[in-house]
Amino acid sequence: AMMEESKLTRFQRRYLMDCVKRGGTLPLQCHPTSSKEPAPPFSPPVCQPSRLSAKPHLRPAKVCQAGDAYTREKFKPRARRDLEKEKQRLQNILATGKDVMEHKVKQMLVQTKEEEIPEPDRFEELVNEVQERKEFLAEMEALGQGKKYRRIILTEISQKMHEMEIIDKKRSEEMREIMTKDIPGGNKS
User: Which of 123, 127, 134, 182 shows the smallest number of beta carbons within 10 Å?
Assistant: First the structure.
């Protein structure tokens, strides 16, 4: 009657009845699907003490203080700003009513904007992008994922190659125009 109330599976009932027939002790846990006890989940033995003692194991204060837990790093102050520059700036503001440093900074910004870095060549960018995609595909094939990415990567590479061809055609036409202008009476074919 107790087995029926506890809603045991047929396997569990059979297993318990076999234990009773043999005259052995009843198991503490009866697993629902097999007679083998599952392996307990891995955990380090340190975390599972076999028996808890009544007396807690506390470390004495001297042992705790002897460790590095209570030592602090020495404070090392750093200069946040140049005090001499700040003094000069304040003197200029009080003397002229204007901040001379601000004008110098603005002039520096204008000069850097004028000296803009030339735009990277699109053709070179495309060559680098194609190379990156080839490397990515090689990595994926080494990892066994080549089939998944091959079609996508090859499509992207073909698009980059097409764009490179268009740029190459434009450049060659520009070169022809330059060459025909430079040569007097040159053939425009």
Answer: 182
Does this model's pTM top 0.85? My answer is: no
**What is the mean pLDDT for each group of 10 consecutive residues in the chain (189 residues)?**
75 84 78 55 49 69 77 77 85 82 64 64 89 92 90 93 92 89 62
User: In 3D, which of 121, 123, 134 has the Cα closest to residue 164?
Assistant: 123
Instruction: Compute the half-sphere exposure of residue 30: CA atoms within 13 Å on the CB side of its CA.
Output: 18
pLDDT of residue 82: 81
C-alpha count within 13 angstroms, C-beta hemisphere, residue 167: 13
Residue 50 placed within a domain:
no
Evaluate whether residue 17 is within a structural domain. Answer: no
pLDDT at 153: 92
Which residue is listed with tokens 């009932």? Answer: 13
Name the domain count of the chain: 1
Looking at residue 166, its pLDDT comes to 94
- Has residue 19 been placed in a domain? no
Contact between residue 140 and residue 148 where contact means Cβ atoms under 8 Å apart: yes
Dist. CA 156–CA 136, nearest whole Å? 12
Contact criterion met (CB below 8 Å) for 153 and 137? yes
Q: Is residue 140 part of a domain?
A: yes
